[in-house]
Amino acid sequence: MLEAVSREYPDRVAIIDPNQEIHRTYAEMESRATQIANVLWSQGVRRGQNFGLLMHNCVDFLEVLYGAAKIGATVVLVNKRLTSEEMAYELRDSRSVGLVYSPKFDRSVEELDADLDESVWRLRSGPVETDLAPSFDSRVAEAPTSFETLTDVDLGEMGWVIIYTSGTTGRPKGVVLSQSNIVASNNNTKRFLWSRYGEELTPYVRAVVTAGLNHIGGLCTSAAPVLADAGTLVILDEFDAANTLRTIEKYKVNLAFSIGTMWNSIVQEDVDKYDLSSLRVIGTCIAQHTDEQLRVLHDGMGAEVYYMFGQTETTTGSVTTRRMSDLITRRGTLGKPEGYMDTRIVSDSGEPVPVGEVGELQYRGPTVFKEYYGRPAETEAAFQHGWFRSGDLVREDADGYLYFVDRLKDMVKTGGLNVFTLEVEQTILGYPGVESVAVTGIPDERWGEAVVAFVLTSEGAVRDAGAIVGHCRERLGHYKVPKRIIFTDHIPVNSLGKVLKRELVKSLTEAPMNGASPPSASVKARESALRATRRMPAIETSGSDRAGSR
Questions:
Q1: Which residue, of 50, 367, 432, 528, has the greatest Cβ tally within 10 A?
Q2: Structural domains in the chain plus CATH codes
Q3: The model's pTM
């Protein structure tokens, strides 16, 4: 991939890394990737082997990826926001033979060192060698600038990266994305997404990356397609709203894709202070936007806005809105399926559901992941007759637009009826003073599961559980109304902003309630505490009566 682009556009700037004041041309990047391939080979890395990469967003990150691709090795993208124990889990679970890391993570590597086998080598980026690791940069500088790419294997089918799922419902699984997956994703982005905007992205794409490169949003949606299309990529490390705007202005960025929560922070800035005339297209995902936020993105920043929906297992988003107007006239839509991916919406039995009915979204196509690493049974269970089961419940309107309803695992079954937690959450968010909410189910002896809402209120708001229940009763069917309202001062999320509902449920069984002893004392005590929660009144608060007292 990189080699072909470097031959055609050797002197074009491929990557700008403002933090390190680096401007790397395609020829320079290809040369560095070749040297890195030789370094990895000298470390004993061979095709089909895995090694870890723990880096912030930087030019080295991408050069390591392209170097590994020449060998047919797979790079485990260690999540930089994890604890050292969690990092060690990813490296052990993936059977990584080594680790390349940034000096920024010296302390993390020191902490996880004892949890790794002595045979796991380490290389530290930068010129300085430490007791734990030699200098990666010194090795690269001394490496040959030619590497004979393997010809006895189809590199396209080799794993290129392993990205661990967020693990909102259990231990994270390593999603293996092949080189072919990412090439198909690049082609899909260029052919079916960027082509909509015609001359707005000419003469070539100049994009900024704000999302982490260790996630598909940063790597597969933002970075890889730009480099495959001979564009210029500006890489930012830590997200900062004002710095993002300054970067767009300074480097004349015309395309910016980022997580919705980041855009929601950006629109709070005084965007009129910046010259954003170069910016033509904005991509967003995960979080939805209010009409006012969309107005600032479109009118204030002068860009066409699209929404993208997907997951790690699909390499990039495979459902997108077509134009800005979709987000206004079809509130809450995810968009339409696109590109080389087939989609269907099916019932529990695998039969297609009628238009307007809720079913599971399933995918089939070249961007569907290769496997869950080391988990053949879970890989097999993730597919139904060749279709990947996304676990997302959606409905389709008469024009083919999709709308998210719930995660299949989040849906609550109470008294034989299905409750979609997102519907309940949106209803509660409509109550004055509610800042955030997470709805889930807990075991219930009578109903099977009972609907529970964890509510975070804004500072100074009165916490009135009865009023919230009344608000729900006026707007929802009786079986959807939460049996309990639990006020909390914190709703846990992962690094992508996804709510960790299992942690909230766990808090019910581990926290003392009504004088009960802490359930962590024994399994028997844990079960007793859970039974106690089932017998408790329908309305309950935890914490203070007012959100302002924390």
A1: 367
A2: 412-535 (3.30.300.30)
A3: 0.83
